[in-house]
Structure formats: C-alpha cells, structure tokens
C-alpha cells in the first residue's frame, strides 16, 4: 500500500444521507474518517453531481464540519474544465454509495484505509478470574 492516495468522495448518499437537492444529515463517522484521511496526507476530492449553488452549499456544509477538500469536481485545484475532455476525476480510490454492493460503513472504510480499530468501536477485553485486579 502506498503512503498517500488521491481519494474522490461523493457527497449525497455518501457523506450525508441522500436528500438532494437539500443537504441530508451527516452519515455517522463520515466526517471523522475523512478528516483522519487528510491528517494521514491523503488528498480528498469532492466528486459530486452537484453544481452551482447546490454545490456551493455542499462545500460550505463540509467546511462547517471541519472538512476542506483538495479539489472540487476536478482532479487538482488549478484544473480548468474543458468539455472536449472527459469529466472523469483522476483518483486512486473512489468512495461512493453507487458502488457495486453499496457503500461500506465509514468504520470499515476507516479500517481499510487507515488501519487499526474502526471509529466508534470499543476494544473488547477478556474477563478472567482475576480481572478485578486490573
């Protein structure tokens, strides 16, 4: 596994519950996992169907929740849209609710991309005869 990746993330149905054109409620652990990915050096690209004011609202909602993307609907911030080229984003990983099999939980995504214990899960400890001594 490489050290860092460009990760394209959908908004509706992935970061928030799908309520398009409104903004749905945040999906549990989505923002926490995405911020942790950024802390690890990964570049996050918001890759969404939204445009115009609904896109601006989504970007602002993410900012209010502590998440600023490397780029929005483009592969890098300086990229100029040219209709003669594909709009496909150049990313190593895509996180989208439209994946075959659906969206994994953000706990599973955290564990797969960051490793360690998924967010929100407590370590189970064995209870033995002398556990009261701990």
Automatic annotation (TrEMBL):
Q: Which domain of life is it from?
A: Bacteria
Q: Does the keyword Lyase apply?
A: no
GO MF term list: hydrolase activity
Q: Which Gene3D superfamilies match?
A: HAD superfamily/HAD-like (3.40.50.1000)
Keyword presence, Coiled coil: no
Q: Which UniProt keywords apply?
A: Hydrolase
Q: Output the InterPro entries linked to this UniProt entry.
A: HAD-like_sf, HAD_sf, Phage_SP01_Orf1
Q: Which protein are we looking at? A: Hydrolase
């Amino acid at each position: 596994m490489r050290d860092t990746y460009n990760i394209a993330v959908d908004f509706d149905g992935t970061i928030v519950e799908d309520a398009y054109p409104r903004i749905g409620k945040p999906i549990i652990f989505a923002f926490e996992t995405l911020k942790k990915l950024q802390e690890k050096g990964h570049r996050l690209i918001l890759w969404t169907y939204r445009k115009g004011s609904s896109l601006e609202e989504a970007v602002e909602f993410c900012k209010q929740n502590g998440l600023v993307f490397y780029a929005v609907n483009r592969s890098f911030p300086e990229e100029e849209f040219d209709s003669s080229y594909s709009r496909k984003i150049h990313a190593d990983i895509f996180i989208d609710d439209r994946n075959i099999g659906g969206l994994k939980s953000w706990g599973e995504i955290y564990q797969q991309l960051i490793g360690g214990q998924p967010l929100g899960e407590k370590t189970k400890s064995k209870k033995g005869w002398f556990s009261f001594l701990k």
